[in-house]
Amino acid sequence: MSESKEFVECDTCGASLGARYWSFNRLVERVDYDRQGETPDDCATITVLRDDVLGQFCDDGCAKLTAWSDLAGRGLRLIECGAGPIETCAKCGGPVDLTEPHVFYQLMDQTETRRPWLNTIQPHDTEALAYVCSRCDGDLAADEMNVPETEDELLPVGGAVKPPMPVSAPTDKK
Ligand SMILES: [Zn+2]
Ligand SMILES: [Zn+2]
Fold first, then answer.
1. For residue 119, what pLDDT is reported?
2. How far is the centre of ligand 1, averaged over its atoms, from the C-alpha of 100 (Å)?
3. pLDDT tens-digit readout, 45-89
4. Which chain residues have CB less than 5 Å from ligand 2, an ion?
5. Of 35, 102, 159, 172, which is least packed with CB atoms within 10 Å of its CB?
């Protein structure tokens, strides 16, 4: 069993993770309500600009334990999360307009299938934890800068042009 380095350990209890595990993600996303439907959920098209996995866990109990303390460490409260278009910032309590880029924390129950040619993730369930407005998340502006917004920026630019460096963004790389 210890041969495989494919799967990592639970960040809370250290158990080896199987193909099915929970992850704690910080996403930068934008929602367009451009589809026909009864509820905001039905109408939403979500564009994920960035997706950072903050932790991986063996079950939802371990996921919540670490995710909640992480959010508390960021000064965020757990509040009811809906499908927008206006939600409440978990830090300042102000409105978060989901049609603008914003930060979103969620837990996801998923099965990861690893094959030599393709890794696929099949989500079973997600739990929304917090929305954070752009005023309260200092990394958001830098995250947006790192995302090519237009097709022009996706083209190779000859190696000479670099995106502007974020000046004050703290790095949270481990
Ligand atoms: Zn665990
Ligand atoms: Zn805020």
1. 86
2. 35
3. 999 999 999 999 999 999 999 999 999 999 999 888 888 899 999
4. 89, 91-92, 94, 133, 136
5. 159
CB-proximal residues (5 Å) to ion ligand 1:
10, 12-13, 15, 58, 62
pLDDT in tens, 131-172: 999 899 877 777 776 655 444 444 444 444 444 454 554 545
**What 3 state SS string does the chain have?**
CCCCCCCCECCCCCCECCCEEEEEEEEEEEEEECCCCCCHHHHEEEEEEEEEEEEEECCHHHHHHHHHHHHHHCCCCCCCCCCCCEEEECCCCCEEECCCCEEEEEEEEEEEEEECCEEEEEEEEEEEEEEECCCCCCCHHHHHHCCCCCHHHHCCCCCCCCCCCCCCCCCCCC
Full-model pTM: 0.75
Q: In one letter, which amino acid is 108?
A: M
Q: How far is the CA of 33 from the centre of ligand 2 (A)?
A: 22
What's the rounded Cα separation, in Å, for the pair 70 and 78?
Answer: 11
- Looking at the chain, the whole-number percentage of residues with pLDDT higher than 70 is 79
CA of 34 to the centre of ligand 1 (A): 39
The domain spans of the chain are 20-148
